[in-house]
Amino acid sequence: MGRVLAIVLAGGEGKRLMPLTEDRAKPAVPFGGSYRLIDFALSNLVNAGYLQCAVLTQYKSHSLDRHISLTWRLSSLLGNYVTPVPAQQRRGPNWYLGSADAIYQSMNLINDAKPDYIVVFGADHVYRMDASQMVQAHADSGAGVTVAGIRVPRKDAWQFGVIKTAEDGVAISEFLEKPADPPGLVDSPEESYASMGNYVFSTEVLVEALEKDAANPASRHDMGGDIIPMLVEEGRASVYDFKRNVVPGATDRDRDYWRDVGTLDSYHEAHLDLVSRLPIFNLYNMQWPIFTSNSQLPGAKFSQGASVRDSIVCAGSIVGPASVEQSVIGTQNFVGDGSYVQRSVLLDGVHIGKGSVVRNAIIDKNVVVPDETLIGVDHAEDRRRGFAVSEGGITVLGKGQVVKP
Questions:
Q1: pTM for the full predicted model
Q2: Are 65 and 172 found together in one domain?
Q3: Least confident among 34-48, 83-97, 120-134, 321-335
Q4: Is the domain of 254 the same as that of 312?
């Protein structure tokens, strides 16, 4: 198929995930106890055999850069790499003005690699996907760009960027941003294609489009908002049906799973998808592993009297004679005697004191919850104490937030 360069867009601020993104970029937000969001995109690319990956970073990128540098080490002897690329003002005194401008300002990566195709993936979705199958479909189609589309119920598609196809079901005729009346599919009128934010470009088409976009003062310089509509208008865009993608080890239950975790509620819901007996998204598929750093920590420990059900508990954590249900417990956490943690996500280094109740909550790193504290039980009280409460009723504590007794 020719040479492929992978570019991962990881400069997102993630305002809707505040306070989790107050101190880190959205792709660096921890997920699933052991991972960060960017690990899913990078694992999909590496498992597919794409071992030259540039990660474009910008917003509060220190923890993201550190994670990539320490975790994603490929064989330099074979010319493989995953490397963070910060904004460098190569095109003038501006930081990245949008996702398209980020690639335009990093054109040196394309000039150096001289790829035939460029895979552009977002860094903040949870899913499994064999990117090589999408590249093959793009090469076979002869299109200038191929956009990954996931089938969603038509009644829910207004929340997404929606792809309308021609009668052949492949060529894209319109790219609609959150339409009030989403178009149905040719073969399934009650479903619509939502854009997954993943693209495959023929190199010369992308370079030409970026040059045009950079010269347009009215552009927002966004991949989904400007580059894709431009190529759709020129008749050079096609859709790749995510349902066609076959990942080794996938189950019927999690095969088509894709989750945009751009809000606190969707982030919380995606964690609940992990912990059931038959998980909606299966982290334990070792035929298509999600890679991350391995902490040098002892295994999790459970005291006599501990009750843990439908939960993930990571290395270095200790659960006393307490109850944990439908929760994800990160590394080096402590759950004290008589405490009750339900439908909650605890990131690393959280200490839950004795007799406390944590329900429907997300607690970021290094928070100490005093003895006999209630979190997520009374939303009015949570707000009074300075905790964030999402629209869906999830109580969120930021990194290192002080919780007074």
A1: 0.94
A2: yes
A3: 83-97
A4: no
Alpha-carbon torsion, ordered 158, 161, 166, 167, to 10 deg: -40
Q: CA-based diameter of the chain, in Å?
A: 67
Structure tokens at 313: 């508990």
Residues 225 and 317 reside in one and the same domain? no
Whether 35 and 155 map to the same domain: the answer is yes
Kind plus residue range of the DSSP H or E element containing 82 = strand 81-86
Is the pLDDT confidence value at 144 over 80? yes
Is residue 241 in some structural domain? yes
- For helices 38-47 and 62-71, the axis angle rounded to 10 degrees is 30
Determine the Cα–Cα distance for residues 118 and 204; give it in Å rounded to an integer. Answer: 10
Specify whether 255 is located in the same domain as 313.
no
Residues 43 and 115 in one domain: yes
The count of domains in the chain is 2
pLDDT by residue (tens digit) across 259-303? 999 899 999 999 999 998 889 999 999 999 999 998 899 999 999
Q: What is the pLDDT of residue 100?
A: 94
β pairing state of 318-319 and 334-335: parallel
Q: How far apart are CA 72 and CA 290, in angstroms?
A: 12
Report phi then psi at 69, rounded to 5: -65, -40
Residues sharing a CB contact under 8 Å with residue 96, sequence separation 6 or more, in sequence order? 11, 56, 58, 87, 102, 105
Q: Is 66 left (phi over 0), alpha (psi -120 to 50) or beta?
A: alpha
SS3 track for 318-373: EECCCEEECCEECCCCEECCCCEEECCEECCCCEECCCCEEECEEECCCCEECCCC
Counting residues of the chain whose pLDDT is more than 70, the rounded percentage is 100
CATH number at residue 378: 2.160.10.10
Is the pLDDT at 30 greater than 90? The verdict is: yes
DSSP calls for 182-231: PPPPSS-TTEEEEEEEEEEEEHHHHHHHHHHHHT-TT----IIIIIHHHH
The range of the structural domain enclosing residue 349 comes to: 295-397
Task: Specify the DSSP class assigned to residue 298.
Answer: P
- Tell me the per-residue pLDDT of 167-190, one tens digit each, with 9 for 90 and over: 999 999 999 988 999 999 999 999
